[in-house]
Amino acid sequence: MNREEILKAAQNSGEVNDEYERSVSRKGISYAVMAAMIIVVAMCLAEIFIKKSVDYGKFVIVFAMSSIMDIYEGRIENNKKSMRNGIVTGIIAVVFLGVYIGALIK
Q1: Whole-angstrom Cα distance, residue 20 to residue 5?
Q2: pLDDT in tens, 70-93
Q3: Which of 83, 89, 49 is nearest to 65 (CA)?
């Protein structure tokens, strides 16, 4: 192999590694959002049983994060399922935002 062939092979292998790193990063972020959702649900259940009330602002934050992540992934990868999931979770975030604001106004 001459120098140019080695350079070309190294550049091509770098692209594969970059895609792998992006995939791992995306999967890690997805797991983080799922963990945040589980923690928020646990916190809200504790609030329901202890304080007899719920802070819906936590749900707004988690569902908005999930929505933005899915919409971004759907747009970048042209993935309709991710885009649909992002829109649905975005609508859920807006509903919880309305409930949260309603609870503040009371």
Answers
A1: 23
A2: 898 888 888 899 899 999 999 999
A3: 89
